[in-house]
């Protein structure tokens, strides 16, 4: 869920402005945590490259990529400036690269999971609110947490696509022999075109937006699971 969706939604103007501000905060925070997780994991596996280049930080200015950030703001999925990794510092290069790559999407899943748990709490709070002020505060927090969860799930799903420079391509390398992996990566542009072609067809023909529908389905699944707990 990005600004384009929010602007075309049925929310009133005040709510749209509030959610636009929420979106900006969530984008900066989520992308920063994503890249910090890459850097921290790389260091844990023996590669200090990201740390030496000032990327082992929660300072968002060190991580933002203009195009990826704008994509995240507008359409709800995107990327930050890739963290520099030197696989020769890893004892097992393929495993080190794969685990380091997985750390980013995993951090977004954790943020989404935490957001869903608190989203559930706000839902219960709204149902039991005894004053208008409490209802309004909880309702605003509820919207923020929903947006936080959905955008982090979108970021996770998008980055798991096996197309360079996305994290999914590094994870794929763990399961393929290098000769097949590099042969496949020679056609990365065509793979990207095929993928976005599938997204376009599913959206226009079948009226199902994969890049929004999948994160939304994951959100509902997590929420249903949490609802059975409390």
Beta strand count: 0
Ends: how far apart? 27 Å
Shape: globular
Q: Major sheet, described briefly?
A: none
Structural class: mainly alpha
> How much of the residues is beta strand, in percent?
under 5%
Task: Summarize the SSE layout with pairings.
Layout: H1 3-7, H2 13-44, H3 49-52, H4 66-75, H5 93-127, H6 132-159, H7 167-175, H8 178-185, H9 188-204, H10 210-229
Question: Could you explain the architecture of this structure?
Answer:
By secondary structure, this protein is mainly α. The longest helix has about 35 residues, at about 95-125. It is built from ten helices and no strands. α2 packs antiparallel against α5 (about 95-125), α5 (about 95-125) packs antiparallel against α6 and α6 crosses α10 (about 210-230). It is globular. The chain has helices spanning about 5, 15-45, 50, 65-75, 95-125, 130-160, 165-175, 180-185, 190-205, 210-230. The two termini are about 25 Å apart. The mean pLDDT is about 85. It has one domain.
Give a brief description.
This protein has 230 residues and is mostly helical. It is built from 10 helices and no strands. It has one domain (3-229).
Notable features of this structure?
mainly alpha, single chain, 10 helices, 230 residues
């Amino acid at each position: 869920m990005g600004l384009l969706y929010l602007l075309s939604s049925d929310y009133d103007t005040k709510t749209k402005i509030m959610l636009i501000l929420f979106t900006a905060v969530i984008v900066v925070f989520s992308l920063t945590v994503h890249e910090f997780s890459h850097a921290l994991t790389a260091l844990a596996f023996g590669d200090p490259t990201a740390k030496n280049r000032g990327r082992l930080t929660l300072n968002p200015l060190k991580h933002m990529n203009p195009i990826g950030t704008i994509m995240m703001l507008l359409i709800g999925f995107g990327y930050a400036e890739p963290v520099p990794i030197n696989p020769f510092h890893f004892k097992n290069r393929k495993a080190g690269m794969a685990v380091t790559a997985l750390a980013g999407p995993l951090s977004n899943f954790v943020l989404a999971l935490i957001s869903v748990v608190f989203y559930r709490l706000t839902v219960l709070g709204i149902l039991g609110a005894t004053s208008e002020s409490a209802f309004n505060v909880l309702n605003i927090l509820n919207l923020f947490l929903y947006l936080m969860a959905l955008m982090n799930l979108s970021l996770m799903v998008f980055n798991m696509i096996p197309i360079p420079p996305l994290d999914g391509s590094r994870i794929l390398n763990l399961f393929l022999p290098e000769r097949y992996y590099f042969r496949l990566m020679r056609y990365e542009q065509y793979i990207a075109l095929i993928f976005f072609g599938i997204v376009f067809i599913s959206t226009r023909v079948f009226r199902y937006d994969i890049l929004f529908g999948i994160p939304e389905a994951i959100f509902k699944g997590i929420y249903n699971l949490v609802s059975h707990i409390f």
